[in-house]
């Protein structure tokens, strides 16, 4: 069962008379390949969730169960994606923030308040940015799960396009196996060219 402490911030906001609270988080800042994906989730006020927790603490199977639960208990879900080209053009921090803003604007209900995982925003909606927010707020945890499962699904699709890289296993993170595949087969269009060690490899080619 989701820890009752994770409802604390939402309950305080409900008690102030606010109705629609969106949790916002992103997945995929660290990998060497693939986009960064953000999600915004407005849960029903009385939602009591069983599987939802910080996505990094859940197994893949638990995340899939949590995703079903979130979809059943959400009033609105928004997803924003920043492509590899965008990451290379404006940097990963700004690309993650753009994806988060996009996810918020995709919501079919305008939130009264945003609970955001560790990212200050320039937006005309009141918000609270929280370090490790996905461990403190059920709404942010829900957003982290939607973002992570969406990104993982994309990387599993990319595994079919570039099977020799085994993206379905490491999801683009810089594992030993992934680094070996880059050395053997080179980089793909979904690799981030501004990230080390890919950046260094490109310099060697030039």
TrEMBL record:
Gene3D superfamilies xref list: Ribonuclease H-like superfamily/Ribonuclease H (3.30.420.10)
Required co-factors: Mn(2+); Mg(2+)
Binding site for a divalent metal cation: 25-26, 117
EC number assigned by the record: 3.1.26.4
Co-factor binding details: Manganese or magnesium. Binds 1 divalent metal ion per monomer in the absence of substrate. May bind a second metal ion after substrate binding.
GO biological process: DNA replication, removal of RNA primer; mismatch repair
Reaction(s) this enzyme catalyzes, per UniProt: Endonucleolytic cleavage to 5'-phosphomonoester
SUPFAM superfamilies reported in the protein's UniProt record: Ribonuclease H-like
Compartment(s) where it occurs, according to its Swiss-Prot or TrEMBL record: Cytoplasm
RNase H type-2 domain mapped to chain residues: 19-206
Function: Endonuclease that specifically degrades the RNA of RNA-DNA hybrids.
Protein name: Ribonuclease HII
């Amino acid at each position: 069962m989701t820890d009752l402490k994770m409802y604390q911030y939402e309950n305080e906001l409900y008690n102030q008379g606010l109705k629609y609270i969106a949790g916002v988080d992103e997945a995929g800042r660290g990998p060497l390949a693939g986009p960064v994906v953000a999600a915004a989730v407005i849960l029903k006020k009385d939602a009591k969730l069983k599987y939802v927790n910080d996505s990094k603490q859940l197994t893949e199977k638990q995340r899939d169960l949590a995703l079903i639960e979130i979809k059943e208990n959400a009033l609105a879900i928004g997803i924003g994606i920043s492509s590899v080209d965008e990451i290379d053009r404006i940097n990963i921090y700004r690309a993650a923030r753009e994806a988060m803003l996009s996810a918020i604007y995709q919501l079919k209900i305008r939130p009264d308040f945003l609970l955001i995982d560790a990212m200050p925003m320039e937006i005309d909606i009141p918000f609270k940015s929280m370090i490790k927010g996905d461990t403190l707020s059920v709404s942010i945890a829900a957003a982290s799960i939607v973002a992570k499962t969406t990104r993982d699904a994309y990387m599993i699709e990319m595994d079919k396009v570039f099977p020799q890289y085994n993206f379905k296993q490491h999801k683009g993170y810089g594992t030993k196996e992934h680094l070996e595949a880059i050395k053997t087969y080179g980089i793909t269009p979904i690799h981030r060219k501004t990230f080390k060690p890919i950046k260094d490899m490109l310099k060697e080619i030039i």
